[in-house]
Specification:
alpha+beta, 3-stranded antiparallel beta sheet
């Protein structure tokens, strides 16, 4: 007599395989969903700005407005990088516009450069005074032994120069003859200061001698 067949023995392997397939399928769907939540797609035009991701506005600009006494946008860099960086291929990397009583760009540093600018072939800082009474560039030294402006190297002033206070000269070695114009300088001769002018010919004309 053949042994009796238990129907559960036939159905159980198939049921276990179906259950395993269902579990694996559910696990795969959960992993895909979790990955999508952990690594969202880069933001594009019309989408929220995502921190820590590359955001593209396409052909549109992004504007942020606020009505508060606090900064509208604040970027804090805790590492050694830049707090804020602006780049432009042919335009202006950073533009600051202030109101009638505001300041377009304001910079502060306790012991280093508040503003640092450099260029290879152009102009690092270009200042214009567009109306009567306006000032293109102003420097104020309010602290003890502080200096409003230092120019290291050749300086060119196109236009009138008005000095409202004294003009101090540091004594120097007699300069070489200039290529054009004349050089006004102070040097020591026989232990006494001389205020003199040197011309392109190399001649030195003494204007005043220390008493």
């Amino acid at each position: 007599m053949e042994p009796a067949t238990n129907l559960n023995d036939v159905d159980n392997p198939r049921s276990r395989r179906a259950m395993l397939a269902g579990v694996l399928g559910g696990l795969g769907a959960w992993l895909v969903s979790a990955a999508q939540r952990a690594m969202p797609a880069d933001a594009s035009a019309g989408a929220p700005v995502l921190a820590g991701r590359s955001n593209s506005g396409g052909g549109f600009s992004t504007e942020l407005r606020a009505n508060t006494t606090q900064p509208t946008f604040r970027a804090v860099q805790l590492g050694g990088g830049n707090g804020l960086r602006g780049e432009a291929t042919t335009g202006r990397g950073v533009v600051g516009i202030g109101g009638s009583q505001g300041t377009g760009v304001w910079a502060s540093s306790p012991d280093h450069n508040a503003v640092f600018a450099r260029t290879t072939h152009g102009t690092a800082v270009n200042a214009f005074a567009l109306s009567s009474g306006s000032v293109g560039l102003a420097g104020t030294a309010s602290g003890s032994n502080s200096i409003a402006l230092i120019a290291n190297g050749q300086s060119i002033l196109n236009g009138d120069v008005r000095i409202t206070r004294g003009l101090n000269f540091d004594a120097m070695v007699t300069p070489s003859a200039p290529v054009g114009g004349a050089t006004l300088f102070v040097h020591f001769v026989a232990g006494k200061m001389q205020l003199a002018v040197r011309f392109t010919t190399g001649d030195v004309q003494v204007l005043a001698v220390q008493p």
